[in-house]
Structures are given as C-alpha cells and as structure tokens.
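Cross-check.
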Amino acid sequence: QVKFVESGGGLVQPGGSLRLSCAASGSIFSAFVMAWYRQAPGKQREMVARITSTGNTAYADAVKGRFTISRDNAKNTVYLQMNSLKPEDTAVYYCYSYPPPKVPNWGQGTQVTVSS
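Predicted model, tokenized:
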C-alpha cells in the first residue's frame, strides 16, 4: 500500500506563505491523481487542491488564486505552495490520492497555523 508523509507546516502570520511537501512510497505514484486535503478542528476533512499525472489542477474556491499544487513524479513528491494565508486556513494538511479509497490510511499530516 502506498504511504504518504507530509511535511512543511508551521506557524505563520496572516498574509504569510508556506510550502508543504508530501513524499509518497510506491512505484506507481506517477499514475495517481494526487490531492491535498485539510481538516480544521471540529470540521470535516476537505479537499483543497488536486493534480493529475499530467499536471492538470483543480482547487477549492476557498484557496483558488492563493494555493498552487505541483508534483515531481521523479521524486514521488507533491507540493502545495500556500500564499496569502488566512486564519481560516489553519488545519492539519494531508496528501492522498484522489479520490481516496473507502478505507484510507491517512498519514500524520502536517499542522498549519495562521495566527498573529
């Protein structure tokens, strides 16, 4: 089973930027549509961005124009560049294939906190 390890989160002031990384195990990573998800306290996990194997992207309305998803298939890695961060972006961020399986094996995620 493919596993994903997220990194790059932290505490940032409103208006700041962060770049998240997700390293995937497995030789078929390049075939997956990959996505970043986030879960804020008391809320359901939601998809924020996804990218196909050929680089086509889609974003949730809440992050459109501020976040950019990219991938490096040679490194089995997907990235999320987050600019103009807002307090409402505070959440644990996860990566996974899209759509996730019925019983996903979520990783630890990486905490993003936007606060002054």
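The chain is about 0% helix and 45% strand. The radius of gyration is 13 Å. Passed to J.P. for a second look.
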